[in-house]
Write a sequence for this structure.
C-alpha cells in the first residue's frame, strides 16, 4: 500500500486532467467561438450595389454614400453624451436605449446605433469621432433614385432582419438587403460580394497586423449593373394615368415576354424609403390599410377576369371542335338554361357567330359554346378537366415562374374542385352549374399579369415566353432557359385568327369603337366584373371593376396590355381609355388624342372609393 | 575499484529533453514579438534567454553527473544550510518584484533561491530519514523532520510566496513511504475537504453535515457501545476547524486570495477582473480544439490575451497551438516521468536515494498538479511554474539539479 499510493494519485490526477482537457478542447466548442471573437476582428468592406437601368438604358437607380454610426459595446468608454447627442440630434434617453439594445444583441459584435447619416452630419461627426471610443462609422451605399416611379417594380433595400442573419452566413446585423421587387429577386447580382479583412488583436484591443498574413482576406466585388425590361417612360405615363384610381396595368412585349410596365395604383415615390426617414415613411405606407400603396395590384390582386376571358372560352371550343367559326347561336337578351335559370345579355343583333360574338361580347354565345365543350365528354368531370388543362397551358391558375418578388396563382377550377363543393357523388353537378366560368365570372380568378400574358398569347397566336423583368446583366442579355424557351399552348394556331379578328372588331365596331388609335391596328376586349365587399358583416355589391385587354399592332404585336381599374364601372369607361393611351404612348411615343388623355387625368374615383367606408347608404354603378 | 556506475537512466533523460525542448518551442511562440525579426540569439526576448538557460543547463548536467554520488549525501546538510541562509538573506539583500521579496539581483541576472531550496530540502530530508537511529514512527523524530521541512517553507511563505510554500507539503509522500502513519495524510485530506466545503457551502451547512454524519455513525455503531465523548470530541474539532476556516478566510485572507478561491468554486464569475487569467487561459486552450491551431498560429497567444503565458501559463500555449493531442502528449510525458522515477526510487537499496527520489517525485507532482490544474481552471490561481516547460532560469536549473542529482544517485546505486 505504501508503494501504491503515489501511483494511484498520479494516475488519477492524469485522468482528471485528461477529462478536463477533453471537455475544454473537444466537447465544448463555445471556447473556439469566443476565441474568434476576442482575438480576431472582422472588418467588412462594402461594395457598390449594382445600378438598375430601364430597357432603353435610362438609369433608374444609382447609389449615394451613407454613413452609419456603429458601436461595439465592449469597447465603449465613458464619453460626452450631451455633445454626442447634439451632433446627431438624438435624445439621450433614446441613445441609452439603443446602446442597451446593442449590448443585449452582443457586447462584442458591432450594432448600428444611428443609421444613415447625411453627408453634413457625417463630416461634422468625423472630426470628433476619436473622442468616442467604441463608436465608429461604417460607410455603406444607399440607393439614389433617378426616377420617381416604379417603386413597386424596383422594390427597396433595408437593414437585414435577424432571421435572415441566422439563416444566411453572408449577412451580418446592419447589412442592407433587397426586401422587395427587383432589389429582392436579384439581390445576389446587385449586392456583389463584400470584402473582408481579419485583423489580429491583442488583449488591449490594438491591431497587431493581419491574421495569418491576410490569407483569408478578400477584396470586395462590385455588384452587377442590370437592365430591366421596364420602359421607364411608359411606366411613368401609366402611373400618371392611374392617379386617383386603384388598380393595375401590366404591359408585356409578346415577342419576348418582357414586362414593359407594371403599374399599381396608388403607389409612392421610391425615394421615400431611403435614408433616416425610411422608417416613419414605411410605417405610414404600411398602415394605410384602405389604399394599400404597398400592395402590388398588378401581381397580387385576383379578380374575376370578366369578358376578356370569353376569348379563351372561344379558343377552347374551337380546339375541342364543338363549334365551327360559322356556327351561330341566338341570344334573346340572355340565355335560359337549366330549370328557369338565366344569364342576362345586353341588346345586340342575333343570332351571332364567333367573330361578332366576341365583338359584341355576347354572353349567350359563350355560355352555349362553353356548355358544348364540357358536355362533349361523357361526364362533366372529364369535360371540366379538359377545359382546365387548356387553361393551364396559358399559365393560369398557377404561379407563372416569373422573376418577380411576389405574385398570386389566381384560380382555374377543375373537376375535383366542383366535386368538393357539390359533395359529389352524393350530389351530382353538370356543366350548367359552372356556366358563369364561360364569361370569366364564377369560380375563375386571374391577376392582371395573367390577363396581360393571356393577351400576349393571343397576340402571338398560341405561344408565350414566361413574363420576366430582367433584361441584361452587365450589358449581356440574359440567357436563362426559363425566359428564352417558348411555352406552347394546347390550342392550334389556326384557331387564333378568328378570335384575333373578333378582338379587332371590338375596336372597329364593337364595345371599344370610340377608343381606336389613328394609324394603329389594335385588337382588344372590354370587361366588367361584379364585385362585393362586406359592410358591417353584410355582403354588399360595389360598382363594377373596369377591365380591358388589348394588343397592337394586330399583325405584328409590339405590346399586349391588361388594365384593371377598381370600381371603374364598365370596361371602356376607364380601363379601355387607359389601355388605348398606353398603347399609343408606347408605339407612337406621343399622344394625339389629348382630350381623351385630359379626361383620364381629370377623372378621379376617390369618391367611389369613399362610398363603402362613408357609413352611409350609397348607389353603385352610376 | 569496482565499477560502481551502472549507467544513467536514459528514459528519464529522454523525457527531460522532450519536455525542455517542447517547452522552448512554446516559449518561442508565446513570447514572439509582433513584427520583430526572428533572432534566436535575441537576449531581450524570453525565447532567446531561455535558449541560453537551456545551453547552460547542459553544462550544469555535466557538472552534476561528474560529481561523485556520495558527495550529495555527505554534504546535504551543508547544502541545506546554505539554502536556508540564502532564503533568510533575501530579507536583507533581496529585491522585491510584484510584492514578493524572492530574488537576488546580480547585474542583469535574477536568481530565485526558493527554487533551489526544494532540492536542498529533499536532500536534507533524505539524509535525516536514512540515519540509522531515525525512526519515523517515533514522535520526536517526526517533529524533527517536520522542522526540516517547515524551516524553508516558512521562509518562503514570508516572501510571501504561498505557491512555492505549498510545494513542501509534497514531502508527505516521502514520509508516508518511509512509515509515517496514514492518519497524518488522512488528517490532511480531511482538513482540505473541510476547508473547501466550508468555502463552497458556508460553515452552517458543513457543521450540519458533520453533526449529521456523527449522529449516523454513532447510531450505526450503537450495538458496540461507542464512546460518546470520543464522537463529541471529533465533531467538536471538525466544527471548530470549519468555523476557523471561515474566520481565516473572511478576516485574515486578503481579498485577492478570496477571489481566487471563489472563482474556482464557481461562486463568482468575473471574467474581466480577477477571473481574467483563468478565463483567458480556458479560452486559449478550448479554442485549440482537437488538433490545435498550429505552431505560432495561436490567435490568443499572438494577441497575448493570457497573462504570464510564457511562464506559469505556458500550458495554455500548448493547448491552443497543439490542441488536445499536444496537451495530452505533455500530460503523458509528465505521468511517464513520475512513474519512471517511482520505479527508479523503488529499486534503490539505499534509503537516502529512495527518500530523495520520493522527494523529487513529490515536488514535480505538486507543481504538475497545481500548475496545470490552475491553467485548465480546476485549481485556484497559484503562481508556480510548470517544471521544465515554463520560462525562467532559476526554475529550469532548480528542476535540472533536482532531477539529475537523482539520476546520478541512481546510476551508482550498486555502491550504496
Amino acid at each position: 500500500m505504501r508503494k501504491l499510493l503515489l501511483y494511484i494519485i498520479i494516475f488519477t490526477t492524469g485522468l482528471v486532467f485528461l477529462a478536463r482537457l477533453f471537455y475544454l478542447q473537444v466537447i465544448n466548442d463555445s471556447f473556439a467561438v469566443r476565441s474568434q471573437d476576442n482575438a480576431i476582428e472582422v472588418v467588412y468592406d462594402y461594395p457598390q450595389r449594382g445600378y438598375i437601368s430601364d430597357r432603353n438604358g435610362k438609369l433608374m437607380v444609382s447609389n449615394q454614400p451613407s454613413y452609419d454610426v456603429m458601436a461595439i459595446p465592449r469597447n465603449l468608454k465613458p464619453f460626452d453624451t450631451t455633445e454626442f447627442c447634439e451632433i446627431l440630434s438624438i435624445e439621450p434617453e433614446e441613445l441609452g436605449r439603443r446602446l442597451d439594445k446593442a449590448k443585449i444583441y452582443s457586447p462584442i459584435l458591432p450594432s448600428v446605433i444611428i443609421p444613415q447619416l447625411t453627408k453634413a452630419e457625417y463630416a461634422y461627426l468625423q472630426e470628433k469621432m476619436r473622442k468616442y471610443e467604441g463608436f465608429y462609422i461604417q460607410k455603406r451605399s444607399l440607393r439614389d433614385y433617378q426616377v420617381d416611379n416604379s417603386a413597386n417594380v424596383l422594390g427597396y433595400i433595408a437593414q437585414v432582419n435577424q432571421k435572415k442573419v441566422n439563416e444566411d452566413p453572408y449577412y451580418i446585423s446592419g447589412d442592407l438587403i433587397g426586401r422587395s421587387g427587383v432589389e429582392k429577386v436579384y439581390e445576389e447580382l446587385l449586392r456583389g460580394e463584400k470584402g473582408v479583412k481579419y485583423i489580429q488583436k491583442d488583449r488591449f484591443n490594438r491591431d497587431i497586423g493581419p491574421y495569418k498574413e491576410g490569407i483569408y482576406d478578400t477584396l470586395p466585388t462590385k455588384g452587377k449593373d442590370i437592365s430591366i425590361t421596364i420602359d421607364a417612360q411608359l411606366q411613368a405615363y401609366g402611373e400618371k394615368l392611374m392617379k386617383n384610381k386603384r388598380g393595375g396595368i401590366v404591359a408585356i412585349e409578346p415577342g419576348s415576354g418582357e414586362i414593359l410596365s407594371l403599374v399599381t395604383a396608388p403607389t409612392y415615390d421610391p425615394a421615400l424609403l431611403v435614408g433616416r426617414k425610411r422608417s416613419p415613411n414605411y410605417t405610414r405606407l404600411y398602415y394605410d390599410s384602405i389604399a394599400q400603396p404597398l400592395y402590388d395590384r398588378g401581381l397580387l390582386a385576383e379578380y374575376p377576369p370578366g369578358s376578356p376571358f370569353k376569348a379563351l372560352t372561344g379558343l377552347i371550343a374551337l380546339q375541342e371542335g364543338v363549334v365551327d367559326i360559322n356556327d351561330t347561336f341566338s341570344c334573346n337578351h340572355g340565355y335560359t338554361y337549366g330549370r328557369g335559370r338565366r344569364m342576362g345579355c345586353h341588346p345586340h343583333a342575333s343570332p351571332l357567330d364567333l367573330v361578332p360574338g366576341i365583338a359584341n361580347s355576347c354572353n349567350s354565345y359563350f355560355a352555349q359554346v362553353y356548355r358544348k365543350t364540357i358536355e362533349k365528354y361523357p361526364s362533366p368531370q372529364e369535360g371540366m378537366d379538359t377545359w382546365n388543362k387548356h387553361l393551364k397551358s396559358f399559365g393560369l391558375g398557377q404561379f407563372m415562374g416569373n422573376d418577380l418578388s411576389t405574385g398570386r396563382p389566381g384560380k382555374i377550377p377543375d373537376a375535383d374542385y366542383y366535386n368538393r363543393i357539390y359533395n359529389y357523388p352524393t350530389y351530382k353537378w353538370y356543366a350548367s352549374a359552372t356556366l358563369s366560368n364561360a364569361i370569366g365570372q364564377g369560380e375563375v380568378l386571374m391577376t392582371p399579369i395573367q390577363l396581360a400574358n393571356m393577351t400576349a398569347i393571343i397576340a402571338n397566336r398560341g405561344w408565350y415566353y414566361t413574363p420576366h423583368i430582367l433584361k441584361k446583366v452587365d450589358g449581356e442579355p440574359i440567357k436563362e432557359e426559363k425566359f428564352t424557351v417558348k411555352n406552347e399552348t394546347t390550342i392550334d394556331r389556326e384557331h387564333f385568327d378568328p378570335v384575333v379578328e373578333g378582338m379587332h372588331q371590338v375596336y372597329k365596331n364593337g364595345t371599344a369603337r370610340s377608343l381606336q388609335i389613328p394609324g394603329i391596328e389594335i385588337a382588344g376586349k372590354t370587361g366588367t366584373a361584379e364585385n362585393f365587399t362586406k359592410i358591417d358583416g353584410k355582403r354588399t355589391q360595389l360598382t363594377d371593376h373596369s377591365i380591358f385587354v388589348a394588343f397592337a399592332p394586330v399583325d405584328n404585336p409590339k405590346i399586349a396590355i391588361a388594365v384593371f381599374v377598381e370600381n371603374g364601372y364598365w370596361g371602356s369607361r376607364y380601363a379601355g381609355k387607359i389601355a388605348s393611351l398606353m398603347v399609343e404612348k408606347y408605339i407612337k411615343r406621343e399622344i394625339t388624342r389629348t382630350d381623351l388623355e385630359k379626361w383620364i387625368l381629370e377623372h378621379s374615383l376617390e369618391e367611389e372609393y369613399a362610398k363603402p367606408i362613408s357609413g352611409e347608404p350609397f348607389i353603385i354603378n352610376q | 575499484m569496482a565499477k560502481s556506475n551502472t549507467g544513467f537512466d536514459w528514459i528519464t533523460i529522454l523525457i527531460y529533453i522532450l519536455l525542455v525542448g517542447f517547452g522552448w518551442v512554446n516559449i518561442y511562440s508565446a513570447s514572439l514579438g509582433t513584427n520583430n525579426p526572428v533572432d534566436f540569439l535575441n537576449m531581450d526576448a524570453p525565447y532567446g534567454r531561455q535558449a541560453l538557460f537551456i545551453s547552460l543547463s547542459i553544462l550544469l548536467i555535466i557538472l552534476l553527473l561528474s560529481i561523485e554520488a556520495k558527495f550529495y549525501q555527505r554534504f546535504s546538510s551543508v547544502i541545506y544550510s546554505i539554502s536556508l541562509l540564502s532564503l533568510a538573506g533575501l530579507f536583507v539583500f533581496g529585491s522585491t518584484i510584484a510584492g514578493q521579496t524572492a530574488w537576488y539581483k546580480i547585474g542583469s541576472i535574477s536568481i530565485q533561491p526558493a527554487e533551489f531550496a526544494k532540492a536542498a530540502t529533499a536532500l536534507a530530508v533524505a539524509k535525516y530519514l536514512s540515519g540509522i537511529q531515525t525512526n519515523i514512527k517515533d514522535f520526536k523524530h517526526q517533529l524533527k523532520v517536520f522542522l526540516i521541512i517547515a524551516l524553508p517553507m516558512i521562509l518562503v511563505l514570508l516572501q510571501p510566496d504561498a505557491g512555492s510554500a505549498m510545494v513542501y507539503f509534497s514531502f508527505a509522500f516521502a514520509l508516508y513511504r518511509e512509515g509515517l502513519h496514514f492518519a497524518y495524510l488522512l488528517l490532511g485530506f480531511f482538513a482540505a475537504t473541510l476547508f473547501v466545503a466550508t468555502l463552497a457551502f458556508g460553515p452552517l451547512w458543513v457543521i450540519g453535515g458533520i453533526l449529521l454524519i456523527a449522529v449516523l455513525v454513532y447510531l450505526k455503531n450503537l450495538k458496540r457501545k461507542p464512546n460518546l465523548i470520543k464522537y463529541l470530541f471529533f465533531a467538536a474539532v471538525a466544527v471548530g476547524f470549519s468555523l476557523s476556516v471561515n474566520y481565516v478566510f473572511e478576516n485574515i485572507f486578503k481579498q485577492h486570495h478570496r477571489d481566487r478561491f471563489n472563482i474556482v468554486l464557481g461562486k463568482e464569475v468575473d471574467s474581466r477582473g480577477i477571473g481574467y487569467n483563468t478565463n483567458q487561459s480556458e479560452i486559449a486552450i478550448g479554442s485549440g480544439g482537437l488538433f490545435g491551431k498550429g505552431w505560432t498560429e495561436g490567435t490568443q497567444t499572438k494577441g497575448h490575451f493570457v497573462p504570464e503565458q510564457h511562464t506559469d501559463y505556458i500550458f495554455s500555449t500548448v493547448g491552443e497551438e497543439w490542441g488536445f493531442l499536444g496537451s495530452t502528449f505533455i500530460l503523458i510525458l509528465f505521468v511517464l516521468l513520475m512513474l519512471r522515477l517511482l520505479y527508479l526510487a523503488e529499486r534503490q537499496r539505499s534509503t537516502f536515494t529512495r527518500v530523495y527520489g520520493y522527494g523529487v517525485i513529490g515536488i514535480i507532482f505538486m507543481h504538475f498538479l497545481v500548475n496545470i490544474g490552475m491553467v485548465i481552471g480546476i485549481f485556484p490561481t497559484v503562481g508556480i511554474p510548470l517544471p521544465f516547460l515554463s520560462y525562467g532560469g532559476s526554475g529550469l536549473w532548480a528542476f535540472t539539479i533536482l532531477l539529475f542529482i537523482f539520476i546520478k544517485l541512481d546510476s551508482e546505486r550498486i555502491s550504496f
Summary: The CA atoms of residues 515 and 580 of chain A lie 6 Å apart. Chain A has two domains: 41-228, 232-614. The two ends of chain A are 111 Å apart (CA to CA).
